[in-house]
Design goal:
It is a single chain. 37% of the residues lie in helices and 16% in strands. The protein is of the alpha/beta class. It has a single domain, classed as Rossmann fold (3-Layer(aba) Sandwich), CATH 3.40.50. Strands 1, 2, 3, 4, 5 and 6 form a 6-stranded parallel sheet that branches. Helix 2 crosses helix 6. The structure holds flavin mononucleotide. The site of flavin mononucleotide (FMN) has 24 residues, from helix 2, helix 3 and strand 4. It comes from Vreelandella maris. This is Flavodoxin.
Length: 186
């Protein structure tokens, strides 16, 4: 798999960029970070994918949040100990952290690592995502998060981070990386 060959190529690199995306806005930001800082890029996939239909996913996520259900991940990350820094990317769902990212943080012990959140949302911001990350990530050093407006599936806006918007977000990402102490590799 691509993920494995990437890890071979970049085995010296201690960054992991793991992200969840549905309509590819968060993926666009993940790619920008990857291009800038290198490392391994992994998209989270579920054993049982969410429904395509928007209303159906909204009610499923709502219920998962209420019951605290952690959907099993299909993605496995071998040898997580090798990474010092883990960028975690996610959309805002239901004004909180999406259940699959809760699954990831619950499944892997990231204590002692630097965790760097990044997010896209429909314009309502981070909600309680950072508080949930703090709870699930005891012993992590959590750096300042990146947050930007992506799509708004409710209103039929899917991938919004493209064309001029992509350039705008890229400039913001690079400025943020610099502010948290990363200078871009390229
Ligand atoms: C199930 C679901 C719930 C969402 N809830 C919110 C929300 O509470 N607040 C918000 O600003 N955007 C919300 N959105 C919009 C997404 O955060 C936004 O479109 C984001 O850019 C999607 O990222 P992606 O393209 O990487 O999937 C929601 C989207 C979905 C699919």
């Amino acid at each position: 798999q691509e993920q494995e060959s990437e890890s071979d190529l970049q085995s010296d690199d201690a960054n992991l960029i793991v992200y969840l995306t549905r309509t590819n806005n968060t993926k666009a930001v993940a790619s920008m970070i990857h291009e800038a800082v290198g490392g391994e890029l992994i998209e989270l996939a579920l054993e049982s994918p969410y429904p395509e239909d928007y209303e159906s996913i909204v009610s499923q996520v709502d219920e998962e949040n209420e019951t605290g259900y952690l959907p099993p991940l299909e993605t496995t990350i071998g040898n997580i100990e090798q990474y010092d820094t883990i960028f975690i990317g996610f959309p805002t769902w239901d004004m909180t952290l999406p259940p699959p990212m809760k699954s990831f943080l619950s499944e892997y012990d990231l204590s002692g690592k630097t965790v760097i959140p990044f997010n896209t949302n429909g314009g309502y911001g981070l909600g309680s995502t950072l508080e949930v990350i703090e709870e699930l990530c005891a012993g992590c050093q959590i750096l300042e998060a990146f947050e930007t407006k992506g799509g708004l599936e409710r209103d039929g806006i899917l991938l919004a981070i493209k064309n001029e918007r992509q350039e705008e977000v890229e400039a913001d990402v690079l400025a943020w990386l610099e502010s948290i102490g990363y200078s871009a590799l390229r």
